[in-house]
Design brief:
189 residues, mainly alpha, Rna Polymerase Sigma Factor, Chain: A, Arc Repressor Mutant, subunit A, 2 domains, 0% strand, elongated, sigma factor activity, RNA_pol_sigma70_r4_t2
Amino acid sequence: MAGQRVIQLTNKPDQLSSRDDEAPRFVRLFALHERQVRGFLFTLLPNRDAVDEVMQEVSVVLWKKFSELESDDGFLPWAFVVSKFEVLMYRRRLARDRFVFDEHLIGLLAAEHPIEDTKKPVQEILKTCLVQLSDADRTLVLSVYASGVKVVSIAERMGVSSNSLYKSLGRLRRKLQQCVEAKMRSLAT
């Protein structure tokens, strides 16, 4: 099957050379903005493994659709949109297994993410906001989102209902979201 694909590609030399010409431009733009895209993914995903997995998918989609990009200036906003959709697809795959950000929250976080460069990465802002939480709240958030432990397991260990824990996590997510948004607004001004 791979041999057939090579034959098909080599039968269209104009299309192949067109992709070869785009490669250096894509690599330059991707390298320039990869850290910002990765930082954006860190605001939407619970841990580094999830970010790495989704970043791979984002990279593939960006390359496959690169010919649709109209200008180099539009690369970062376009990459953020692709990232948002890849996060939603990733979330749908995991939804039945563990507690993850809901689609509405992902949309809000993505909409609030500034397109322009900022001096302080979003990841650092989130860390600052996490430090402002009480020790118990911070431990709870990190145990769910950083370690990937299921909410049901944590609830059992804490001796509370999983419903109660979900409500607490929802309150903490809103608190973190408000903190990140406030700090991002202050950086934008």
